[in-house]
Write a structure and sequence with these properties.
single chain, 355 residues, alpha/beta, Rossmann fold, 7-stranded parallel sheet, 12 strands, 36% helix
Length: 355
Amino acid sequence: MITYDGPIQCVHILGHPDRPLNLARFPGDAQVFNCLNLCKLLSLAKAPFIYYGLPGSHVPSGGRFVDLGHPSEPWKHRNERHQEYTLQMDRALRKELEQHGDCPQLVASMYGCAQGDIEAPNEFGAPIVEAMVGYDHCWAPYRVFPSYSHQSVLYTDTSERVQESIWFDTVIPHFVDKHDYWLADRIGDYALFMGRDTADKGCHVAEEICGRADVPLRIVHGGVGGAEKTDLISRAVAVFMPTIYVEPFGYVAVEAQMCGVPAITTDWGAFSETVEQGKTGFRCRSAAEFTFALEHAPELDRKYIRDRAVRLYSIEAAMPAYLAYFDYVWETHHSGGFYAEKGLRHAFQNWRGSK
């Protein structure tokens, strides 16, 4: 297991503005999930970090918690809560950044534009990374996209705030704790749809295909987490994720594969990177293809699906890339930007040539 030994002495993680870091309370919240997973990665690497969040947060071992207090109202862009949150975060960050003195520090923003007005990091020369960008906007000078598909979508924004820093971004897939998922000892007779109750998630596609094939479909729109969630996924014949928009990543498809369960998805967005066609699932564009996928899903090798997911989307898989990127950010931020002599990400740091 990697133990972090780079220059960064503290990673300051800016958490959710409305919800504590408590996945048991908010099992379907992708941003809470992202925050927890990044904390777990740093904890496992023994990299020091501070999580700034709301009361009731459960921070993994090795991290310290800074309590920002209860919100006065739900956050919305530029509302009173936005201003309140900015002041709270700036005040807390200034105190911690000052206490750490001149040692190398990095700030990880986890909630997009809610944190775009925070000024303290700039005052102390701490670079800001938007980690695990899964939304439709970005603002920080360093960004980690979960897929090349999502990066390409956001790069169509020609505004200066996006284009001026594209040299310093990277792509690292989202990741999960492999110990939270397992292969089932018994497979059920149902397919599963798990996602938000919105038309663009494509639940109606799953319903139509399962209806035609006379396969029971279980629909879960939220509220299920932990072992209950894994049991539900792992016993499914297949998990449908026929998202109609361009999916930035699609956690459920990867969680399914972590359980060895084939993912049946649309054929665009991040699925083109996360679902190996005919091996770990099927990417479809017609009723005939979705029907074919459901019929042949039981033939796919569940151990292979699980092994590939662990290899690509576990904390252990993401850790070297994230730690190397944090070092890269520090180097480029303080040693010449594009011309920084040691501005190398993980793939370059570990290249061994054709032999």
